[in-house]
Amino acid sequence: MAPTTPTLDQVRDPSDMRNFSIDQLRKLADELRAETIDAVSVTGGHLGAGLGVVELTTALHHVFDTPRDTLIWDVGHQCYPHKILTGRRDRIRTLRQGGGLSGFTKRAESEYDPFGAAHASTSISAALGFAVGRDLKHEDRNVIAVIGDGSMSAGMAYEAMNNAGHIGGRLIVILNDNDMSIAPPVGAMSHYFARLVSSKSYRSLRKLGKGVAKALHVEEAARRAEEYMRGMAMGGTLFEEMGFRYVGPIDGHDLDQLVPVLRNVRDGDNGPVLVHVVTQKGKGYAPAEAADDKYHGVAKFNVVTGEQQKSKGGPPSYTKVFAQQLIREAEKDDSVVAITAAMPGGTGLDLFGERFPERMFDVGIAEQHAVTFAAGLAADGMKPFAAIYSTFLQRGYDQVVHDVAIQNLPVRFAIDRAGLVGADGCTHAGSFDVGYLGQLPGMVLMAAADEVELSRMVATATQIDDRPSAFRYPRGNGTGIEMPDVIEPLEIGKGRIVREGSRIAILSLGTRLAESLKAADALAAQGFSTTVADARFAKPLDEDLILRLAREHEVLITVEEGARGGFGAFVLHMLAEKGALDRGLKIRTMTLPDVFQDQDTPFNMYEEAGLNARHIAARALEAMGQDEAAAERIAAALAAS
Description:
This protein is of the alpha/beta class and 641 residues long. It contains 26 helices and 19 strands. The protein is 43% helix and 14% strand. Helix 1 (22-43) crosses helix 4, helix 3 (54-63) packs parallel to helix 11 and helix 25 (613-623) packs antiparallel against helix 26 (628-640).
């Protein structure tokens, strides 16, 4: 007997699975799960969320006519099975690699990714835009948003649902509930009601009943009776009140339930509908099912044992250094509290929470609330530290301005993932925080060059009680510098000279200091005496230090791991105001490039950005009028070392 071709091998794109039987879909889902596990074991990435939606992904592409029907995934880290089914299986082992597939949905990557997503809770808003556009163009197609994995904790999702209910057009929202947080028990009765209320016969009977109720002038009583029945049987009254027809909950791993319900919804009446699907994060892979975090994000791992590839050791991460110092501050001061927006592990506040559970607050994916919550704490005399990734803090910027800065409240922002972030790419790169915080009156803004400096900045922020403050630090491990026994706070607005020279001055903000020192060594070896300074503060600037560098050197280079319009711009503005540019100082600013950089290894991203030591040295030589040969000699020396 000839071997049977694996079902997944028969699917080049979703059109190949439209006529599959339920049994074929089950086999396809099993093979899709195995393929996802194997791929992520090679690349690392987000595993648990994708495993939880294997059957849902299979059912959606089976029932709906994608890409003609618009399918939008929230967050994006649920989308690995989706990528495999939509013509990208041959590249799935390039996930999160340089030149490979993005770890999230990306419009430029496939027509099956109509909307890019990496931050949470955007799907319903975007889907409503597609639905309204469809209706204005008089087109006939479905628009489906899949939201879940915590994304329903963000207010934006409810803003979108409220608007969708008001507009009333046809829209399908799939709520992927993978933590049972709002799910009533899933069983035979709830399955029965889900299929019933999504069916054509129920809708016809409901329409007839409405007509009878209207004729008898009891339509309001009938509406309330039906709502009570549906709420008691299935839950979902909240969504009904927002204008959505609620269907569910249904077992998101049971294709016998998923497929007919999705068909009923597809063929149903106009108007928004929410399908409540209950799934298990990490489903089908024992190590993921057993993990507390359901293998949310993993390194490369052994498929058989589930053992993840261990790091090579070395210095602690900046995140851990921050958490440990914050714990020390909280031990001395019981007014210190910590706030995170659904990222206790990612920000290190899980460690703080273990030590001070009553003083750590995880508000969910709700950065706007996190900022104003911190503002309220500060106004009441507490010392709140809001630990939020740089790109996530962007979502709460209005609150930073209106609720914190204008009121001059001493909220302390611990900005993790500042700068480039490697495999997560441009959606998570902290490129803009220096610019968007540094322009705010009264803000104290620091950037740590190493672990000791980060610890000192935590101590400094604890003592700032009269205005808001922030300190930024990168993803990854520290430099390995020895930590002192006593951590002293910094003097506000004062930088430091790390190395003295006479001709070239390199002024670094943040963790490019190590590369600046390498560049200075290479320049000195070629006869160009170089000073290196650590600015420490982007605001307030150390004007005395910067003016001295400008006065005593031929060339001044500013270096930062941030976008244009940040630290270098602040320095230029100050020097211009002080007239320090009039004497012919040669000044250059080095920033991240004016593009969104795709994912790659950190070194390759810095190479592309032009922020490694050879680039810093080359920029200094260019400013001094040296030819390219001098830069090539320095680059060769750096490469050899």
